[in-house]
Amino acid sequence: MYELNDKKIGEHLKALIDERGYKTTADFCRDYLKLKYSNQEITDTILQNERNRFGAILKGDKKIQTHDLPILSELLCVSCEEILSAGKHYAPTINHVTNYEIAQSHDRKVWDEYMKREDTIFLNCDEYCKTVIDYALEFKNYDFMKYLLEEKFIWFVDPSANVWDIYGYRAGTSIKPKELAKNYPENRLPTEIQYQDKLRTQTIALAIDNEDYDILESMRAREIPEMHKLNRNGINCNNIYKNEDLIEAIANSENEKVIDYFSDEFTIMSINNKEITVVFPFLSDVIESMLNNKKEKSAEVALKKAIAHNKDTFNKIDDMIKMACKLHHDSQTEQKERFIKVCTETGCSVNDANMIKRFKENADNYAHIYSMFNVDKYNYVSFNYHNNGQYHDIITNICKVTSKKGSAEIKSLVKELNECYNRIISLGGKKDAEILL
After folding, report:
1. pTM strictly above 0.85
2. CB 395, CB 375: distance < 8 Å
3. Count of CB atoms within 10 A of residue 360's CB?
């Protein structure tokens, strides 16, 4: 049994608050009110009243209230008994720690204790099938996500292995369970962190919102795993995840480096170790969002780079088609002339006129060459041809914008972008065309 002593309770509470890293009573009261009022707006008046009340409690001039106890217990990670006894009596609270409360915390001491727990609760989903990472992203707690990444408790891109595999960028965790069930995989993070791209891209969106741009390259921020498996048929669209929060974060960013980073061309390594030049797979969506949010300055930068990429893509494919057509025409012409020469020298009784006509018709028929051009619904385009046993190809993605918003200058850029897009698409629509020399 113990006696309630307001002064000692206040002193113990003050010590607990200090241990949790709160620099001021106001900081503590903000977190207290967040738990108390959930998603309701906290006005300056409410905060000031709570500061005054807790100021009196910490001095021992005011009694702690019953409704305070569960909130304080959760916020300070101690039992109600410890608070009321001013630290003389303790009750185990380890089982009361939840993913939900940790994900809202901004206290490194709380995080350290949580990550060092022997029961490795970090690896587990709660009764709602959510991990602490799910909650942290839901609460936009970038401080906690950055802590997990910097301490290497988690990673979304494994720097020590191949940068991608059939599932993604080999996300993982250094936290291991004490005991593993038979045939249970060592990495027990939920399958979404390994086999989906939501958590990686959501963290990138938070990084941009928090102006942490140094992390973008290491997180392969402008790539998606499926791009590394590009082939002449396009991209595998079954598992593509388009993160709308990331698109909005890029579009709303005021930082020029972010706009440049996500609108510049870049190279990736394909499944057959071939370098492929592409642009951010959702650049068109970013530009649409910029225009919807009246970010014309950013949209102008992105549009000009998208236009340059589309034009370069058109020129490359157009040149390749012309070369393929020329090689085909020259090959058929050469065979025709060789046939005429053989017939002349041997006096062959073959119907020379029909054969010569057939060679000429074949030389002027480029349908099979144009059939090598492909574009899929995600606007990945490809073309390939052979020359003396050598394989030549191009695979990339192109941009178009449907928005009608913006100034006259912006509309002019959108028109130029889409005209070039249409020219690229038309390259695959030519059948039995004249030779392109």
Report:
1. no
2. no
3. 13
Q: What is the dihedral of CA 292, 295, 296, 298, to 10 degrees?
A: -120
Residue 76 has pLDDT above 50, yes or no: yes
Euclidean distance between CA atoms 129 and 141, whole angstroms: 19
How long a stretch of residues is the chain?
A: 437
- Could you report the per-residue pLDDT of 281-330, keeping only the tens digit for each? 999 999 999 999 999 999 999 999 999 999 999 999 999 999 999 998 88
User: Which CA distances in Å does 41 have to 45, 46, 131, 259?
Assistant: 11, 10, 26, 33
CA distance 366 to 326: 10
Distance CA 235, CA 198 (A): 18
Which single residue is written with the structure tokens 């005991």?
A: 179
> Domains of the chain (ranges plus CATH)?
1-94 (1.10.260.40), 97-221 (no CATH), 296-426 (no CATH)
Q: What is the pLDDT of residue 195?
A: 67
- Write the burial class of residue 350 (CB in 10 Å: 0-12 exposed, 13-18 middle, 19+ buried): exposed
